[in-house]
């Protein structure tokens, strides 16, 4: 009966749904299985569209965010569905010319200037609230590597004269509030330097090693409620100033660094029960590496819940470089209320990898109100993804290096995965080297990307072909592709960029 219900014919499946009820609690899963038949079946190559940088869809499907090519303006579209009519059978005719325009699929809601003359919108940065009422954007001036060393700044971290975060009402484009950071460095690429959880936003200042906890009020205000760095409690600074009577001056370690060292000391102390051997053990494991621990800086932070932060510590070089797989790093779970580090792991820890494998979804902290976000495939909720991960581990030449490579993705980057059902690994298989739910550019391929049915492994449900229809291109030119899938419509954009050439945008949809 189940095989009959999951027929390859969409009309048959809709008809069968009327008399075959799913198991209790499985209605949404059953509905998502209809996407095996509702797939993009037609492609418009090199569609006539504005020369914008398209960022992403919000996961409610109402907004498509784009930026102007000069990185000064924010443009927001609303997806609409293509409608046209013909006198004869439409399947036998090509689409009319008007249907091959971008504005046949998307309606522009507004365009607003967001950056001034010497500032630029960070095209990789965009976060939205769970209610989808507000969107968070960022602008910055040019990065400087020759900045003067100021008090509290980490040597070796570059500086940006001004970084500004804007809270925009997505419905009409009204800028409600903004928060600026001067002579600082926040990693805005792919939203790495900020994490949004419910109404709380944490922003990581790499230059001054400070975690700013900002609350986004319903009124549209950005209110900083806590800073974690030099001080951990609200009254730490007052307490120190009122009790310091010696000449230590500014030689105190930052509060978060003190918490880290204290945790490492206690952990090392408790490893050896024998009192006489503890001193030697401390010398070897703690004091010998003391300066290395002191030199650690905060790389990246995410929320685990409203009270706990997941913090990644590492060297200065690893904090500002793109590849951090081989760098030594530590992961700490920090309780903001008690200001204690609850647990600490090295990036080669098998214990942390075991947690990563079994409870990966807990690292995501997906929005509670997002029904689509709950279906993002991972190795902790999908047997197919788990099999892929274990196969990669078995093929790895070094278990330690494999663990480090996997841990490089932590802490998780906020809102970086598409909830589209076409990335659901229980429904479709595809080459993750060419395309995946993770929001990243890929090397362009000449061949179509196949989406194969999991239920029928020999059946290709649909194909996504980036690039031009003819397939003619300069093989010497470096080309990259990005893909934007609507969260629930059979609609996707493939965007191909080639150096010194116009951007090619294809629209894939169900005709």
TrEMBL record:
Protein name in the entry: Light-mediated development protein DET1
InterPro entries, per the entry: 6-hairpin_glycosidase_sf, De-etiolated_protein_1_Det1
């Amino acid at each position: 009966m189940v095989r009959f219900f999951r027929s390859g014919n969409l009309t048959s499946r809709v008809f069968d749904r009327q008399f075959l009820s799913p198991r209790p609690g499985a209605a949404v899963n059953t509905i998502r299985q209809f996407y095996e038949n509702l797939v993009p079946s037609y492609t418009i190559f090199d569609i006539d569209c504005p020369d914008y940088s398209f960022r992403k869809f919000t996961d409610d499907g109402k907004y498509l965010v784009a930026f102007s090519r000069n990185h000064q303006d924010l443009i927001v579209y609303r997806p609409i569905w293509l409608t046209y009519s013909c006198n004869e059978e439409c399947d036998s005719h090509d689409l009319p010319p008007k249907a091959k325009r971008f504005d046949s699929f998307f309606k522009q809601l507004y365009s607003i200037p967001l950056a001034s003359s010497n500032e630029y919108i960070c095209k990789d940065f965009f976060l939205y609230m769970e209610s989808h009422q507000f969107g968070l954007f960022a602008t910055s001036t040019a990065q400087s590597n020759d900045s003067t060393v100021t008090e509290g700044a980490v040597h070796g971290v570059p500086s940006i004269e001004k970084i500004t975060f804007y809270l925009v009402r997505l419905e009409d484009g009204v800028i409600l509030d903004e928060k600026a950071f001067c002579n600082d460095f926040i990693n805005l690429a792919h939203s790495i330097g900020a994490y949004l959880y419910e109404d709380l936003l944490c922003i990581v200042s790499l230059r001054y090693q400070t975690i700013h906890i900002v609350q986004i009020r319903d009124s549209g205000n950005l209110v900083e409620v806590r800073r974690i760095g030099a001080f951990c409690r609200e009254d730490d600074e007052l307490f120190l100033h009122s009790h310091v009577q010696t000449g230590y001056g500014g030689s105190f370690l930052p509060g978060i660094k003190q918490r880290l060292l204290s945790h490492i000391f206690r952990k090392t102390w408790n490893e050896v029960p024998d009192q006489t051997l503890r001193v030697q053990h401390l010398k070897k494991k703690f004091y010998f590496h003391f300066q290395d621990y002191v030199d650690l800086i905060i790389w990246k932070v995410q929320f685990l819940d409203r009270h706990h932060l997941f913090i990644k510590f590492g060297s200065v070089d690893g904090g500002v470089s793109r590849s951090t797989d081989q760098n030594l790093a530590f992961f700490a779970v920090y309780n903001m209320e008690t200001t204690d580090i609850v647990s600490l792991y090295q990036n080669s820890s098998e214990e942390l990898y075991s947690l990563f494998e079994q409870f990966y979804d807990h690292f995501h902290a997906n929005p509670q109100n997002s029904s689509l976000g709950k279906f993002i495939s991972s190795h902790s909720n999908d047997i197919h993804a788990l099999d892929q991960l274990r196969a990669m581990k078995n093929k790895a030449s070094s278990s330690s290096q494999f663990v480090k490579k996997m841990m490089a993705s932590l802490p998780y980057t906020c809102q970086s995965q598409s909830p589209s059902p076409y990335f659901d690994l229980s429904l479709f298989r595809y080459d993750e080297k060419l395309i995946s739910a993770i929001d990243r550019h890929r090397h362009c391929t000449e061949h179509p990307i196949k989406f194969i049915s999991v239920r029928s492994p020999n059946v290709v449900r649909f194909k996504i072909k980036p690039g031009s229809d003819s397939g003619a291109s300069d093989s010497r030119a470096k080309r990259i592709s990005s893909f934007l899938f609507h969260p629930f419509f059979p609609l996707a954009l493939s965007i191909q960029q080639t150096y010194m050439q116009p951007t090619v945008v294809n629209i894939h949809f169900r005709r």
